[in-house]
Amino acid sequence: MCSLSPDLIPEILCRVGVEDLLRFRCVSKPWCSLINSPDFIKLQLSYSLSTNTNLSLILRSSYLFSVNFDSLQTAQKLYHPLDENDEGEGTEILGSCNGLLALCNGEEEICLWNPSTRKSLMLPVTEIEFPPWFCCAHFIVYGLGYDPVSDDYKLVRMVQFYGKYVDSFASEVKVFSLKTNSWRRIKDFPFYLKYKRAYGILANNALHWVVSKKPESDTESFVVAFDLGTEEYRVVQLPDCLDKGFHMNVKALGGCLCMIANYWKPYVVDIWMMKEYWVKESWTKLLSVKQTEVALCFDFVLPLAYSRCGDKILLNRDDEKFVWYDLRRKRVKNVKIQGAPSSFEAEMLVGSLVPLNGNGAMLNKKKQTDKKKQKKNKKGNDFLSQGFHLVL
Questions:
Q1: 95 with 202: CB under 8 angstroms?
Q2: How far is CA 132 from CA 113, 163, 352, in A?
Q3: How are beta strands 246-253 and 64-68 bridged, if at all?
Q4: Which residues have a Cβ under 8 Å from the Cβ of 208 and sit 6 or more positions away?
Q5: What does pTM read for this prediction?
Q6: Mean pLDDT of the chain, nearest integer
Q7: For the F-box domain, which residue ranges apply (predicted)?
Q8: Mean per-residue pLDDT, 242-265
């Protein structure tokens, strides 16, 4: 190692897996300082994203599972920070960004977690500010992203409320900043969210949702972006050549925004990619497949990732199965993963050393136990508040 130039060592180490890098911190103090430095963390992340390496597939059912993307052979259960507080409904994944996962066990239990470093951070609780006219239901969607200008990770929470009338709805939007470890309210979201469980799709430092102007089912759908830097909402222009009568969805592939159009008649799925962000003319049809060719279910077909060579795309089908789609030969190949749950949601994750710095408390078992006791005490207090008394 003494014969190597100091400039070469980071270039070599950034090609190593995260688990090895964590061990290599014990080699020497200079190596530990290098691997923990912000510049090296960004270098390792940039190399992994540009070369499509250090990737894993995260499957979410009642539990979380991880699958090595290079092999796609075996699913291994992940023991995440909210495991002990999971009451059987399954921890939700609210978003993924640069190796971080946002996890949720209800509105009051949200954490950021880096599965590679096994570090986690509980987010402070922020109340929902219900409008005075609110009388029906509400739902919440999230989105996790990174703002390179402020060098900050942000979790966006959108709450949408319904009123008495069909077209009456409103929203509340808050943004959590990892740098400040705090929530703040921003400008309300002026559109109607079409999907009640869809988290924001991250592409080009913006989160994207499928929306409409009104809640009616026959209202035209379109895509809105939330810029993580300016924190402004903008409508994304879609291709002009789209036909009518299709189900729209969005996804990110290779860092680019994709729009999925699932047509009912004829039964065809088209996947479009915006190769140059915010340039309408750069929309390119990536693939178009008829149902009879691959027997796909069109309610839910999402692209997940390119193969290492870039000639194939991993697709997630509606029946919770995966297929490789060969872009050149236009053929598919089924992917069988041992140990995978029968029903799941899939998410791509890159291995990284991104830290969870902030003033918040790290999640630990003691805090989890204390929180459970608080819940039990709260139930007891609620019982007594109804006019009942304990008899000793």
A1: yes
A2: 36, 10, 44
A3: unpaired
A4: 200, 201, 202, 223, 224, 225, 226, 236, 250, 257
A5: 0.87
A6: 85
A7: 4-44
A8: 88
